[in-house]
Write a structure and sequence with these properties.
Oxidized Rhodanese, domain 1; four-stranded parallel sheet; 36% helix; disordered N terminus; 5 helices
C-alpha cells in the first residue's frame, strides 16, 4: 500500500499535460521482443501471471511490491542499462502508464507501453484476445 501512496504522490508532481509515450500494440511488442529489439516486462502480480500465463520470454516484475522493487527489477532485466529499449505490459494498460512515467523519471530513455495489455482496453483487444502466445507460469 505504501508503494501506491508513494507512486501517486510522485505522479502528482508531473505536469498534467505529461503523457506517457511511446505506445506499442501487443503484436508489435511480440515481434520486437522475439527479434530482440525490446525487453518485454510484465508488471502484473504473480497471481495474474498464474491465471493467464505470460508472453514468451517476458521478464516479470511485480509492480505492487513497491517503487524500489519495480526500479530494481527493471534494472536487473536490462542489466543496468537505462537506455535499453523495454516494453511494459500489464492487464489493461493502467499500471504500465504509471510505471512508464515513473521509469522515465528515473532516467530510462526507451520505455514503451503495451497500452492494450493482456486483457484488452480502449487501446486494443489485448494480448489474449488477439491469440498471441503465452507460457504458463505455475511456479510464479
Amino acid at each position: 500500500m505504501q508503494f501506491w501512496h508513494s507512486l501517486v504522490f510522485a505522479l502528482s508532481l508531473l505536469p498534467l499535460a505529461a503523457s506517457a509515450q511511446p505506445d506499442m500494440t501487443a503484436p508489435e511488442a511480440l515481434a520486437a521482443s522475439q527479434s530482440g529489439k525490446v525487453r518485454l516486462i510484465d508488471i502484473r502480480t504473480p497471481q495474474e501471471w498464474r491465471q493467464t500465463g505470460v508472453a514468451p520470454g517476458a521478464g516479470r516484475v511485480d509492480m505492487y511490491r513497491g517503487a524500489e522493487h519495480l526500479l530494481r527489477g527493471v534494472l536487473q532485466e536490462v542489466k543496468g542499462d537505462r537506455d535499453a529499449p523495454i516494453a511494459l505490459i500489464c492487464r489493461t494498460g493502467n499500471r504500465t502508464t504509471q510505471a512508464q512515467r515513473f521509469l522515465q523519471q528515473q532516467g530510462f530513455t526507451q520505455v514503451f507501453n503495451v497500452k492494450e495489455g493482456m486483457a484488452g482496453s480502449a487501446a486494443g483487444p489485448g494480448w489474449l484476445r488477439r491469440g498471441l502466445p503465452v507460457e504458463s507460469c505455475v511456479a510464479c
